[in-house]
Design goal:
The protein is an alpha+beta fold. It has one domain (2-41). Helices cover 21% and strands 40% of the residues. It is built from 1 helix and 2 strands, in the order E-E-H. Strands 1-2 form a two-stranded antiparallel sheet. The longest helix has 9 residues, at 33-41. The mean pLDDT is 83.
C-alpha cells in the first residue's frame, strides 16, 4: 500500500492529510463506465 501526505507552509509547517492508496491508486474501476463518470466530475 502506498500513500500520499500533504503538508502546508503557512508561517509554519502544517500537516494536512494522509491518504493511503492500495495499488498506488492504479486499479481500474469495475464497471469501467465509473472511471469515465468520475473523471467527468474533476475540473
Amino acid at each position: 500500500m502506498l500513500g500520499e501526505s500533504s503538508f502546508y507552509d503557512i508561517d509554519r509547517p502544517i500537516f494536512g492529510e494522509l491518504t493511503l492508496n492500495p495499488h498506488a491508486g492504479m486499479v481500474k474501476f469495475d464497471p469501467p463506465e465509473y472511471d469515465y463518470k468520475l473523471r467527468q466530475l474533476m475540473p
